Amino acid sequence: MSYCINPNCPHPENQNNPLYCTACGSKLLIEGQYQVVKKLSDNDGVAIYEIEVKGEESTEIIKVLHIDNPQFISQFQQQAKVLVQLNHPGVPQVKPGGYFTFLPRKGNQKLHCLVIEKIPGENLQTWLKKNNLPINQELAIEWLIQLLEILDLLHEKQFLYQNIQPSNIILRPNRQLALTNFSLEPQSAQSDFVALGYTFIYLLTGQPPSTLLNSNNNTLNWRSKVPNISPKLADFIDDLITDKQPENSQTLRHKLRNIKDDLSPQLTSKKSHQLKSKLLLGSAILFLGLSAIQIFSHFQNKFNDELIYPENQPRQIQYKDIGEFLSENKGKFIVGGIILILAIGGSHFIGYFQIHPKYLMLSLPNGVSLEGTLSTDSERVYSVVISQDGQILACGNGDGTIQIWHLETGEELGIEELGIIEGHTNDVVAIAISRDGNILASGSYDGTIKIWHLETETELTLQSHFMRVTSIAISSDGEKLVSGSSDDSIKIWHIPTGKMLHTFRGHSDSIYAVTISPDGKILVTGSQNNIKTWNLETGTEIYTLVGHSGRILSVTVSPDGDKIASGSSDKNIKIWQLETGKFLRTLHGHSNDVNSVIISPDNQTLVSASSDHTIKIWHLETGKLLRTIRGHSRWVSSVAFSPDGEILASGSFDKTIKLWRLG
Fold first, then answer.
1. Cα 585–588–589 angle (5° rounding)?
2. Three-class DSSP category at 214
3. How many CB atoms lie within 10 A of CB 172?
4. Which region, left, alpha or beta, applies to residue 125 given φ > 0 means left and ψ of -120 to 50 means alpha?
5. CATH class of the domain defined by 125-266
């Protein structure tokens, strides 16, 4: 079943999963990948649904804001921005492009949407009922510390949770707590602490605080329900609900850790007693086991001497029998041994043949050789670039770093690591380098762009996007930088001063890709299902190119300025005429998202990188597939040419960059 998110739809439930709602005609496959399957709640103008993601087995949550109110929209966007920036198990994760707007058919109000992680586990209200008992003070301290740490992260971003209650706190399977159902009502940091105090009174007593109220003096008589609680911990909770605590979660965490330290001898003695009992039991079992082995060995020898080996029969006959037994069953032992080896090391064995250079040399197409593999400390390499002089190779990583190497691209490739640049607080997903090689720019999921002056080793931070920066490009004269973001905007910056010059708006969804024509006059941007070209100087929109049925993840312009190439999550590559916007051809061949496309310096070939782990080389003019390179063991996220077109660099989520020589 598919569910329509149009708030005015008379019959939102659709059977047989059609593409459009049978009642109102709105799209049911949102953003080309999200199918709503169940409505979970609709409170305070925010509807929450469960969704399935196309091509994935997991389910997610989508929050849809129905209120067309600037204040609520701003709060909703702030919530999205904070969740995007935080990478902590205590809050739901937001994927790239998770915030977007959706316009129902025949509607005049955009719906603001946010796709977030569906946190596994159960909420504390359910957990308490299932276990049929309140928590002890040891667990209360552990959970308080976890929740104060989460609130500290949120308050540091100037964001208030404002909705703490047991039903909104999820206990993950790994025992980590997480907050859900963020509120949009503006309150104060103190309100988070007060709600936290009432929540723990409920968790410690098993009763709603309202049932413990003494109407005579307007106080809560909850301590008598927890007779063994530490007075210091009880005072800490009472101070929370009576506004006596400082409005600073760091101070509260410090006080709580002191309380924990004071209680630790008592708690430790209980644990050590349990551990001592287990050790004694284990030792007894071990002693009995060893004794049994000795006794069994004694009786076995005695049995063998008295019954198996009579005085008139030599013992070597039995050894002969054993030898015959082993000989007869040799095949079974060999097969069993092989199975055991495969069971223990199978994954390493397979991984060796997937990525080992010896295997790659056997599998590479004619005219392609692997010149080198560079390992990174990050699990994900998002973006790779090579400078115009061919001497600098750089990559943006999932751990927030940038790595730089010096290249010598002669007959023999020389590689020397220059260093690692740190500064971003989240994944670096886009990097660009100026034509003269002096400026390196980086865009990150932390919402910032950084300009790195490589000669002077100085940096400049550009910040205006309120969501993830997804792509960047530098003009050929090195004066301008273009950035695209999940906030649906494109921004133009003056590199020497860091000043923002313009903001272009025209796409209704996240911007996934940007590039600038070689002459610096035309900007090309990719979003959901469409590509736009702009006059970079005036911001005037020139063309909208449609044809893809998914996110446009990469756009590039040929070095001669004649053609645009685009790669999409619909697994296809499309070629367009830059000047006229005319569609030329579609290249089919990948079995998953096309993450990166680039055209060779001689304008003859196009190279594409895909989540299907392959790199493909195409003839640009005819669209013929020339070669397929298989070498990475995970998604290939980015490709870049050396200026002579002989070296191709590829970055992957398998932690490596590979350098290929193309003949």
1. 150
2. strand
3. 14
4. alpha
5. mainly alpha
Task: Tell how strand 469-474 and strand 563-568 pair up.
Answer: unpaired
Residue type, 539: G
Q: Quote the CA–CA distance of 219 and 209 in Å, as a whole number.
A: 10
In a 3-state reduction of DSSP, which class is residue 72?
helix
Residue 74 one-letter amino acid:
S
Task: Please identify, in words, the CATH class of the domain defined by 364-662.
Answer: mainly beta
Give 640's strand partners: 649
- The 10s digit of each residue's pLDDT in 19-70 is 899 999 999 988 888 899 999 988 878 899 999 988 777 789 999 998 888 8
Each residue's pLDDT tens digit, 378-411: 889 999 999 998 999 999 999 999 999 999 877 7
Please count the other Cβ atoms lying within 10 Å of the Cβ belonging to residue 140.
21
- Domain chopping of the chain, boundaries: 2-117, 125-266, 364-662
DSSP string, 233-250: HHHHHHHHHTT-S-S-HH
- Select from 3.30.70.600, 3.30.200.20, 3.20.20.110, 3.60.15.10 the CATH code of 2-117: 3.30.200.20
Token pair, residue 464, equals 């205006």
For the chain, give percent helix, strand, coil, nearest 5. 30, 35, 35
Same topology for domains 125-266 and 364-662, yes or no? no
Q: Who contacts 513 (Cβ-Cβ below 8 Å, separation ≥6)?
A: 470, 471, 484, 525, 526, 552, 553, 554, 555, 566
Scan for tokens 């205590």, then name that residue: 90
What distance in Å separates the CA atoms of residue 131 and residue 629, rounded to the nearest whole number? 55
For 277-316, give the DSSP string.
HHHHHHHHHHHHHHHHHHHHHHHHHHHIIIIIS-TTS-TH
Tell me the whole-structure pTM to 2 decimals.
0.52
Q: How many helices (H) and strands (E) does the chain have?
A: 9, 40
Kindly give the pairing relationship between strand 213-214 and strand 636-641.
unpaired
Q: How many whole angstroms separate alpha carbon 150 and alpha carbon 154?
A: 6
Look at residue 169 and give its three-state secondary structure.
Answer: strand
Within 15-110, strands assigned E span 29-30, 34-43, 46-53, 59-65, 99-102
Rounded-to-integer distance, Cα 77 and Cα 113, Å: 9
